[in-house]
Each structure stands twice: as structure tokens, then as C-alpha cells.
Design brief:
The protein has 209 residues and is of the alpha/beta class. Strand 4, helix 2 and strand 5 form a beta-alpha-beta unit. It starts with a strand and ends in a 5-residue tail after the last helix. Keywords: Hydrolase, Metal-binding, Zinc.
């Protein structure tokens, strides 16, 4: 498997396109600029199988409807945020004047527990990493040595917790109990900014020292 990072939208949220050698793909957090994202996927002749959402804040879901309608694919979201896609107060779009109020259909697939998930040929582990939001999850691809951490853990920082449902103590517990115990060389692919590694964050992240 290989992955491509595409920063999208005004807040430059990282969307990730994961693909195998047969051109099958998963899309993580299609935040905005649907036309740009769709063109990238079409130009590379990929076949998306699903959309994975680390959480339902507006900057991670802006292109969700065009993408899932384009390929008639399901979106996966944690059950604790099942009503956020249709609620601008909870998804935050009501509080950011640069975007319209987002009111989307509910996710087709709701995740209610940790564990191994398989979508087509892709196998990965769901880790619940709440704190930035109540239903924040991370997607761990053990064989490929990468975890897509959403807005839980960043390169040199952690997610904000001043939005609806945020809890800094819970976020720090999630990072220390779920993310930092991963193998030292694991790549952390965050929702914003540059990739990092578990080792680097253990050793240099000022919020974790």
C-alpha cells in the first residue's frame, strides 16, 4: 500500500488517498475542494471503496458528499458522532464564517468499537482516540507502519480541545495509551501539517514531555 497526502481547504486539512497495486483506494478525511480531490483520483484511475472519517469536524468532511456520491461509496464514522454530519453546531461549520453550514446525510457505516476492520483488500485497526472530539478515531495500518491520527497527535503538537465535546485530559490519555505505545518507527500521518514518528513525538513533543 502507498498513500498520498493532499492538504485541502482554507485550513489545509490533510486528506489521505490510500491505494494498492490494483488501483483500489480508500479516502481518509475529504476535507474540502471536492473538484480537486475527484480530479486527482480520476487522473490516477483509482477506484475508491470507502471514505474513512477520523472525526466529523467541518474541515474534515467538506468534500464528503460529492466524493461518496461520485463513486457511490460508504462513509465510516464513530457512532459517538453519528449526528454531527447534519449538525452545524457540532461539526463546527456554524462557527467559521469562511464555510457554509454543513448539513450532510448520516454516515452509512457507524464504528462502535476498536478492532480489526477489513474493507476490500485493506486491513487495518481502529483505535479510539477521543479528546479532540468524542468520537475521534485513528486508523492503524500495522503492516505498512503508519497510523492516520486525525487531530489527536501532530508533529510537535496535539489537537485543540476548545471545540464542542473537547477534553484535554482525555486527549492526553488517548495519546499516551493508544498512540505512543505503537512501534517506535511508526509513521504518524496527522490531520494537519507534516508526518512524524512515534519516537520523535515521545522525545520532542512539548505537550507530552
Amino acid at each position: 500500500m502507498q498513500w498520498t497526502q493532499m492538504p485541502l481547504g482554507a485550513i489545509q486539512t490533510n486528506c489521505y488517498i490510500l491505494e494498492n497495486n490494483k488501483g483500489e483506494a480508500l479516502i481518509i478525511d475529504p476535507g474540502d475542494e471536492a473538484g480537486k480531490l475527484i480530479k486527482e483520483i480520476e487522473d490516477r484511475q483509482l477506484k475508491p471503496l470507502a471514505v474513512l472519517l477520523t472525526h466529523a469536524h467541518f474541515d474534515h468532511i467538506g468534500a464528503l458528499d460529492p466524493v461518496r456520491k461520485k463513486w457511490d461509496i460508504p462513509a465510516y464514522l464513530h457512532v459517538k458522532e453519528q449526528d454531527w454530519l447534519a449538525n452545524p453546531e457540532k461539526n463546527g461549520s456554524a462557527h467559521f464564517p469562511m464555510v457554509e453550514d454543513y448539513v450532510f446525510d448520516q454516515a452509512e457505516e457507524l464504528i462502535n468499537k476498536e478492532g480489526i476492520m477489513t474493507i476490500g483488500p485493506f486491513e487495518f485497526e481502529i483505535l479510539e482516540t477521543p479528546g479532540h472530539s468524542p468520537g475521534s478515531i485513528s486508523f492503524y495500518f500495522k503492516k505498512d507502519g503508519v497510523i492516520f491520527s486525525g487531530d489527536a497527535l501532530f508533529n510537535g503538537s496535539i489537537g485543540r480541545t476548545d471545540l464542542y465535546g473537547g477534553d484535554q485530559g482525555l486527549l492526553l490519555d488517548s495519546i499516551h495509551s493508544k498512540l505512543l505505545p505503537l512501534p517506535a518507527e511508526t509513521v504518524v500521518a496527522p490531520g494537519h501539517g507534516f508526518e512524524t514518528t512515534v519516537t520523535k513525538e515521545k522525545e520532542t513533543n512539548p505537550f507530552l514531555l
